[in-house]
Automatic annotation (TrEMBL):
One of its GO terms (biological process) is trehalose biosynthetic process. This is Malto-oligosyltrehalose trehalohydrolase. It comes from Mycolicibacterium hassiacum (strain DSM 44199 / CIP 105218 / JCM 12690 / 3849). Substrate binds at residues 229-234, 293-297, 363-368. Its main location: cytoplasm. CDD domains: AmyAc_GTHase, E_set_MTHase_like_N. It is an enzyme of class 3 (hydrolase). One of its GO terms (cellular component) is cytoplasm. The keyword Cell membrane does not apply. The gene is treZ. Pfam families: Alpha-amylase, DUF3459.
Length: 560
């Protein structure tokens, strides 16, 4: 193996464990790479700190200048019970950069959210994409502004009291620029829906695991992130006695103690396995929290009436009540979508509700629809308001997806910009084929490689102050403010939650201490047997000693 530094080649010496070493004087911003065997191609560093010319080019040395950090007094904050705002840097603003996100942070502060969660910002092929096909996990995507701009964004967030979470993908590598297999046994013999699996427990896996752990810790140590969202952890196949998530949890806790501020790990998993969020001392993996798709499915199917695919078991008021009460709907019960039993019951005396995330929208739940349509494109504004009340007034940690707070009319479609013609064609054809098998007209499926697919997905910020968009935005702001202000809404224990509902008339009431959140999911008015002092409402409910009359698609929060 040889080291290329600014075009000059240096021999490297082999060391134990498969490592190679060379010590060379170089400029602070030198471009470098590695030449393997007899292939003259200069490959980027697997731990590249910067890729200014893309994932196929030489790497560049980079370290954050300590003088650029202005968040020395940032105390940090835990995500438990917080409100998280998920955004995609490339479509959040017209410019699609970290610096442009800074210009919108005051909107998020006014909204009342506590954290910004950035969809993947690691280096990936092409100029734009969702980011889940990253190949150089240590580097920051240059079209967003590169590492220096990410430092500016995190400084700006912390200055405004906003925490920052970074979406990290360790379950597979993207197809463009993946040179890791040339350097070592990074891949296993298995596979998952997105490609070959990462080697977590096969021969040679010790250094692969260290590669992942060091990358995860780097976002929190060097970039001052307050935690990570870990993509699809059910696809991490680890047969060792100490699962890599348990190892990461322990090392994150150690780093938190060293830095003197909270650090959080949020796992995305479809297993409904509470061991994921059970503390390590109780035999769990020690994740801070996890995404809970059951809550999304229960709310969305009940409000929208959709029943296709994985919504098949949801939609009833009973399913909605059961899910809100227990955290999981499938908890050792039969799933018709999977055609088998699924999940495991949550120990509600051990695990607080704040370890589960409630949401009515995510990048997945929009972007993985055939045409990337949002609920706002199919539901009434009243239905959107009811969904917001159910999620934000629940005892779970809450999350919004960018633009949800004003009912954005922009779709969020699946887009990519692979520079390789064969890969671009395969991506487009695969997308059409996948949805055509589920009954969609292939001609309706947006081409991921068409630049217009990306441009259509950008938020239209002019909508925020218009008509129903402005009204919904005010509601989200009021709901979040109420969530922060009311002590009864901070109670994280599901054992203290009581839910009443009527299946036929389609109303549901969440009782949280002295507050009752009464929602009418039907189009016609209903009389709900709960009354009290109105705190916050959508439309004009009428409360009396005998109950509360709710207009169609509306809610009322009452102090009883």
């Amino acid at each position: 193996m040889r080291l290329d530094v600014d075009g000059a080649l240096y021999e490297m010496r082999a060391e134990p464990g498969g490592w190679w070493r060379a010590e060379v004087d170089a400029r602070a911003d030198a471009r470098y790479g590695f030449v393997l065997d007899d292939d003259p191609t200069v490959l980027p560093d697997p731990r590249s700190p910067r890729q200014p010319d893309g994932v196929h080019a030489r790497s560049q040395l980079w370290q954050p200048d300590p003088a650029t950090w202005t968040d020395h007094d940032w105390p940090g904050r835990s995500i438990e019970g917080a409100v998280i705002y998920e955004l995609h840097v490339g479509t959040f603003t017209p410019e699609g950069t970290f610096d442009a996100v800074i210009d919108k942070l005051d909107h998020l502060v006014d909204l009342g959210v506590d954290f910004v969660e950035l969809m993947p910002v690691n280096a990936f092929g092409g100029t734009h994409g969702w980011g889940y096909d990253g190949v150089l996990w240590y580097a920051v995507h240059e079209p967003y502004g590169g590492p220096d701009a990410l430092v500016r964004l995190i400084n700006a967030c912390h200055r405004r009291g906003l925490g920052v979470l970074i979406d990290a993908v360790f379950n597979h590598l993207g197809p463009s620029g993946n040179y890791l297999p040339r350097f070592g046994p990074y891949l296993s013999t298995g596979s998952n829906p997105w490609g070959e699996s990462i080697n977590l427990s096969d021969p040679g896996s010790d250094e692969v695991r260290r590669y992942i752990l060091d990358c995860a810790l780097r976002w929190m140590r060097e970039f001052h992130a307050d935690g990570l969202r870990l993509d699809a952890v059910h696809a991490l196949v680890d047969t060792t006695a100490i699962h890599i998530l348990e190892e990461l949890s322990a090392e994150t806790d150690a780093l938190s103690a060293e830095l003197g501020r909270p650090l959080s790990l949020i796992a995305e998993s479809d297993l409904n396995d509470p061991r994921l969020i059970t503390p390590r001392e109780h035999g769990g993996l020690g994740m801070t929290a996890q995404w809970d798709d059951d809550i999304h499915h229960a709310i969305h199917a009940a409000v929208s009436g959709e029943r296709q695919g994985y919504y098949a078991d949801f939609g009833s008021m009973a399913a909605l009540a059961q899910t809100l009460q227990n955290g999981y709907y499938h908890a050792g019960t039969y799933s018709s979508f999977r055609r088998r039993r699924h999940g495991r019951p949550l120990d509600k005396s051990l695990i607080p509700a704040t370890r589960l995330l409630a949401y009515t929208l995510t990048h997945d739940q929009v972007g993985n629809r055939a045409v990337g349509d949002r609920p706002s494109q199919n539901l009434t504004v009243g239905q959107l308001a009811v969904k917001a009340a159910l999620a934000l007034m629940s005892p779970y940690t809450a999350m919004l997806f960018m633009g949800e707070e004003w009912g954005s009319s922009s779709p969020f479609q699946f887009f990519s910009s692979h520079p390789e013609p064969e890969l671009a064609r395969a991506t487009a054809e695969g997308r059409k084929r996948e949805f055509a098998e589920h009954g969609w007209d292939a001609g309706e499926i947006p081409d991921p490689q068409d630049p217009q697919t990306f441009l259509r997905s950008k938020l239209d910020w002019d909508e925020v102050g218009e008509g129903d968009h402005a009204r919904l935005h005010r509601l989200y702001r009021d709901l979040i403010a109420l969530r922060h202000a009311e002590p009864d809404l901070a109670d994280p224990w599901l054992t203290n939650l009581r839910i009443d509902f009527d299946e036929r008339r389609r109303w549901i009431v969440m009782h949280r201490g002295a507050l009752a959140i009464a929602c009418n999911l039907a189009a016609d008015p209903v009389e709900v047997p709960v009354s009290g002092e109105p705190v916050l409402a959508w439309d004009d409910p009428q409360s009396s000693a005998d109950g509360t009359r709710l207009p169609g698609h509306s809610f009322a929060i009452l102090r009883v």
